[in-house]
Amino acid sequence: MFILITGLLLGGTYALIALGLNLQYGVARIMNLANGEMLVAGGFAAFWLYTAGQINPVAALIVIAPVAFVVNWLVYRFMLQPLVKRAKSRGALEVDSILATFGMSFAFVGIMTWAFGGGYFNYAFLAQPLEMFGSSYAQNRVVAFVLAVVIGGALWLWLTYSRVGLNLRAVAVNPASASLVGVDVRRASALAFALGGAVTATGGALVSMFFTLDASVGVLFTMKALIIIIMGGVGDIRGTIVAAVILGIAETAVARLVDPGLTLAAAYLLFLLVLLFKPAGLFGKARG
Amino acid sequence: MYRRTFTQLAAAAVALAAGAGMSLAQDTIRMGAAAPQTGPLAGGATVTHWPAVRLWVHQTNEAGGLQVGDRRMTIELVEYDDQTNPQQAIQAAQRLATQDQVDFMVAPYSTGMNLAAAPIFAQLGYPMITGTAVTDQQPALAQQFPNMFFVLGRTSIMAEDTAHVLVGMRDRGEIGNRVALVNVADAFGIEMAGISRGVLESNGFEIVYESSYPLGTQDLAPVIDGAKAANPDAFIAWSYPGDTFALTDQAIVQNFAPHVFFTAVATAFPGYAARFGDQIEGVMGMGGVNADDPAFQAFAEAHMEFAGQAPDYWASAATYATLEILGQAIEATGSIDRATVLAYLQDRSHEYSTILGPVNFNENNDNERYWTVGQWQGGVFRGIAARGRDGAVAAELFDGWN
Lengths: 288, 402
What we know:
The complex is a heterodimer of chains A (about 290) and B (about 400).
Chain A: H1 2-26, H2 35-53, H3 57-86, H4 90-116, E1 129-132, E2 135-138, H5 139-161, H6 163-173, H7 175-180, H8 185-207, H9 218-232, H10 237-258, H11 263-277
Chain B: H1 2-25, E1 28-35, H2 42-48, H3 50-62, E2 66-68, E3 71-81, H4 86-98, E4 104-106, H5 111-124, E5 128-130, H6 138-144, E6 148-150, H7 155-171, E7 178-184, H8 187-202, E8 206-213, H9 221-229, E9 234-238, H10 241-253, E10 260-263, H11 270-276, E11 284-286, H12 294-307, H13 315-333, H14 338-346, E12 352-354, E13 357-359, E14 370-377, E15 380-387
Parallel strand pairs in B: 1-3, 1-4, 5-6, 7-8, 7-9, 9-10, 10-11
Antiparallel strand pairs in B: 2-3, 11-14, 12-13, 14-15
């Protein structure tokens, strides 16, 4: 039971880390290597609001998410759209966007170091135990998990049942055909990128409740997010959540039953298996 | 194209002329410092390294500079970010020497960066007094790089002393024989865990839980759960900052409270106390200082006032002391000639008075008087074990997260 719940909580954390990048990569086709930095920025914002203003990180999301949405929209509009316009193929766009966002990640690290200094940031919010089934779990992790479920569920419903969501899915499947049937691909991509950034920053704010962050730690989150979205399938919200939960439970089980030193090995083994047997992701269909 | 080249050339010429002018006038000592401002170790360097270095420069200049022969010379500090990248650390040292033509250099931050930069410091002939390098290779390193000095101590001694603290508590009947031992799976953690396991086992302790976790892991609920299930008397974790915080956090959540709770790096950071408040009363960690020493207290106060943050209770003071030592060597020789200063440092008969107390170097360029284990007592991280230093207080039992 401990393993299952701890694994679920960890999976929730992973989902928060990966959902945003999945929107950005799946729909806008931007392999955003500065994703981890956006997450850390969300965490810093939460830290700052909490320590300076005593604003609780969950309430702070009301501010953090819209600000991150606007910032990411601007980033897409002014820094990435020129790349999208000149790209001749999807491959070319991926190479360009990887290079551009890789550079952006350094710029973000520099800005955060300048603004917040290079030190460690953490704070105590809901760091109390919650008793469930005879074991105790950190309340802040439970809160983050619940919000991960809410955010993931809302995104999935919205993408599946709303008109705009349908547009985004169309772009994800095939941008050229989508524009043929009257979808404004450019707007849909910008929307997906900005929304992805907002989700990532939200994840950062929640993760900062129990992670010690510093300005340079973003790349670790980017790596984790990459594994998860590739396992779950690019552009597939449901797949991302399932992959995150599987990874969380697998890592926790290995850590508790075998050895904590093997968690990374377990994660990469799963990744390898998915790549071998379901190369398009857990729920993916081979694309024609 | 040509115009750009010309502008660059002109700019370079102006810079060169400015540099030449400065070295002709020479009423300042140029000091170079390259250490992490970004990258994985930036967090630690921001707590320990940079404020101590800048504070020493600031205080020295406030006092009118160093007395070099019959001149008073102020210090000019040139800083570079080595990005926690060994390659960058080497390039930065090269650039400081050849382009900025600094007279002396501050040793980098952390064991790894110091080892990476040691060959280039030696090749360029700069004294390298390290305040954050802890290894067991001192004799071999001093042989290979006679310009390299060590102030902070030796890893094996720290691991041994940590184990000996437990042996002492067990022999006094305060704790039992059961130890849970975990470590971060990198060179540091593996080495420290190995040494402490050896000492503990040869003293009749039983290792009831042992595991390692990958570098960068902060999801440590399974580790604490496993340790707790083994019901140990003592918990020893050779950890780095992120995991030190995460292990403590998780131990509080799961109310895992053995009689000894030890985490390694960052336990002595002021941020650790800021994060956990008085819950950490009785937690042990690596390093320590004599917190009652007026010299340390004055340093801590000046550090707070200058940098707006407290020093850590371990390597901050050692980093500051490395510059005190260098300054005293410069004043004693009355020279800013590197070879002369280095020769003075290499003369083992010299003793330096620092905020750590008196320091001298043995035949391995090694300072033999340093703190090894500390414990949070009454909101202060006090040294409870040391080699050659007075002021160690008695270890207390950890009586749970308040």
